[in-house]
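Let us work through a complete example step by step.
Step 1: write down the sequence.
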Amino acid sequence: MRLTVLLKLAMRSVGRNTRRSALTAVAIALGLALLVFSRSLAEGAYDEMIDSGVRMGSGHIAIQAPEYLATGKLEHRLEGKEVRIASKAVDDVLKESLLAWAPRLSVNGLASSTAGAVPVRIEGVDPERERIFSNIEGKLQEGRYLEAGDRLHAYIGTELAQRLDLQVGNRFVLTAQSALGDVEGQLVRVAGIFQTGIPQVDQSLIHIPIDTAREWLHTPDAASTLAFLLNQSGLTDIGVETLQQELENEPKIRVLGWRESSPELAAAIRLDSTGNYIFHSILLAIIALAILNAIMISVLGRRREFGVLRAMGLTAAETGLVVFLEGLFLTAASGVAGITAGLLFTWGFFRDGLDFSIFMEEGVEFGGSLMDPVIIPRFSVEQILISTFVIVTIGTLSSLYPALRASKLDVAEAIKFEQ
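Step 2: predict the structure and record it as tokens.
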């Protein structure tokens, strides 16, 4: 009964000071709405970055030889036996969450034409699997992507085509060191030209059929990387852990998550996320100051009221509790309104995506991947729960000091105090 009375006193105080409470509530609600909007937009952007990066890279999960990540050399490859063992393990462990997979045989080499020679990264790919796995076919500018049955065809970037003066149908020579240690050449014909918008990729990446690469480099059934694409990036860690346990007796096989196989992308996301956390911390600090200011003004302006309450039987602790409950009530009501407004605003206006094409024509390079200019916000229960926990914590901490001040008022002095 006594707690009920204290709660009523706190709620009555919030209602009596309508203007102050309303202004404080609006400030808190707007801050939280902005927090929800910016956080959901950031999560959506990270999802887009990861999806684009892993499709152009080594997938959510990559299986390689232990030394390959550090060297990138052909000599550190998976032989046919390891490819079959790894493929079977993935099929057993990740069958339900696996979206697509692609084998790749990569080597550094030289692309030459009558116009000159350029150092390149040559990737032997399975055209049918690569078409499902990556989005590189969608970057086509001229010609076509590789097809099943192609043998002496190549898919090259626009900048490489310009430097070597190549067009669709032209022939040029690829040169690289084979598994036998000899430098060997391979004549290929341009099947298509792509443009990703990433200069490093457009001037150096070449796709050729993996069977051609294996024959040319004398590496039958081998692969540098087995790249696996999952339904959700959040399944990466558990997938890597499970596969590592499944393949723990295979010393020639290493399982990597996308953070390890694509360190530039992971570092870029960490850096951007740190900036977001700093911005959100400043925003939350402003909200905390708004709560503290509103409650402190309330305490300083109601000394006589608190003195009367003490004289009528409230203890010092109960007087402080009234102020504390007042702060919590104001925070809770504003928090619910702010989070709800943020969710409704973001979903109502931007559920189909927020178009940033006015700032970037086709996309922007981020951590070695091309980010789509249309960002779709992502909502999660975890995000809402964290936001709720944070605002409750802020409200609690911001209400403690005013409550302590109220509990220490001298009754006689407070009753004598004239506003």
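Step 3: interpret the result. The chain has a mean pLDDT of 82.
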